[in-house]
């Protein structure tokens, strides 16, 4: 929800925060494991019906693709 606080609006500052954390982890020899769904949905996804919304998997795949592009 920090990365995409509203559908289609990316938070560049949030991405940069996570990119810094990932860089530092790698510098320390840690291998990060990214979790895009960790028990809660973004508010916009929950408001749209949550997992009962047939379009949610497609929207979450868009989030995953953006994370892959920006965070590696």
What does the model show?
It is a single chain. With 72 residues, this protein is an all-alpha fold. Helix content is 51%, strand content 0%. It has 3 helices and no strands. It has helices at residues 12-27, 43-47, 56-71. 3% of the residues are buried.
Measured as a percent range, the helix fraction is: 40-55%
**Whole-number mean pLDDT:** 92
What Rg, in angstroms, do the CA atoms define? 13 Å
Instruction: Give the N-to-C terminal Cα separation.
Output: 19 Å
Q: Indicate the overall shape.
A: elongated
Could you name the ranges where pLDDT drops below 50 across 5 or more consecutive residues?
A: none
Largest sheet: none
Got a strand count?
0
Oligomer: single chain
Q: Supply the helix-strand structural class.
A: mainly alpha
Which band does the percent of strand residues land in?
Answer: under 5%
Order of helices and strands: HHH
| Number of helices in the DSSP assignment | 3
Provide the descriptors you would attach to this structure in a database record.
72 residues, mainly alpha, 51% helix, elongated
Short overview:
By secondary structure, this protein is an all-alpha fold. 51% of the residues lie in helices and 0% in strands.
């Amino acid at each position: 929800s920090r990365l995409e606080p509203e559908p289609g609006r990316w938070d560049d500052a949030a991405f940069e925060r996570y990119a810094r954390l990932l860089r530092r982890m790698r510098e320390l020899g840690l291998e990060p494991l990214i979790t895009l769904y960790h028990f809660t949905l973004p508010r916009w996804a929950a408001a749209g019906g949550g997992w009962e919304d047939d379009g949610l998997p497609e929207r979450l795949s868009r989030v995953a693709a953006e994370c892959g592009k920006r965070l590696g």
